[in-house]
Automatic annotation (TrEMBL):
Cell location: Cytoplasm
Gene: tsaE
Species of provenance: Oliverpabstia intestinalis
Gene3D superfamilies (UniProt xref): P-loop containing nucleotide triphosphate hydrolases
The keyword tRNA processing belongs to this UniProt entry's keyword annotation: yes
Family in the record: Belongs to the TsaE family.
BP GO annotations: tRNA threonylcarbamoyladenosine modification
InterPro entries: P-loop_NTPase, T6A_TsaE
GO cellular component: cytoplasm
Protein's UniProt keywords contain Thylakoid: no
Protein known as: tRNA threonylcarbamoyladenosine biosynthesis protein TsaE
GO MF entry, a single one: transferase activity
């Protein structure tokens, strides 16, 4: 599905709706250029899960864990990862195959670890449609409908 937004509030609201509907074990991958709205979207997801703590990108760690919501929320930013072994070192599989919701920024860098049933979110700008326009494409939600 593709959703178009025209403000950060709308992107946040979309994330919030998905967070409210998120299910244990879901993994979201999140791709898009710097400044496109990945953090805004992630903040929406977190709010939808019932997390009130401020969510920003995990700068010094690969994964940031939030446990105050309806489900645990594991926010990964693998941008600075050197190799796949670093993921093994942090025990990524406990998060990926646990009972929380994972959000993985820059998932393309660890493509071989991303499970088949993940949900892929891509955010893009289109300057012809305005400075605040974003096209948000979500695939992979279909398989989760009856879970
Ligand atoms: P990223 O995490 O992808 O680097 P951020 O979420 O930190 O990006 O920043 C997105 C920036 O774009 C914010 O300054 C936000 O206010 C702005 N923005 C403008 N329009 C939108 C929109 N439709 N959706 C999300 N962010 C938007
Ligand atoms: Mg960000």
């Amino acid at each position: 599905m593709t959703i178009e937004t025209n403000s950060p509030e709308e992107t946040f609201a979309l994330g919030q709706k998905l967070g409210e509907q998120a299910k244990a074990g879901q993994i979201y991958t999140l791709n898009g250029d710097l400044g496109v709205g990945k953090t805004v979207f992630t903040q929406g997801i977190a709010r939808g899960l019932g997390i009130t703590e401020a969510v920003s990108s995990p700068t010094f760690t690969i994964v940031q864990v939030y446990e105050e919501g309806r489900l645990p929320f594991y926010h990964f930013d693998v941008y600075r990862i050197g190799d796949i072994e670093e993921m093994e070192e942090i025990g990524y599989d406990d998060y990926f195959f646990g009972n929380g919701v994972c959000m993985i920024e820059w998932a393309e860098l660890i493509e071989e670890l991303i499970p088949e049933n993940s949900i892929h979110v891509t955010i893009e700008k289109d300057l012809e449609k305005g400075f605040d326009y974003r096209r948000i494409t979500i695939t992979g939600l279909e398989g989760w409908e009856n879970k």
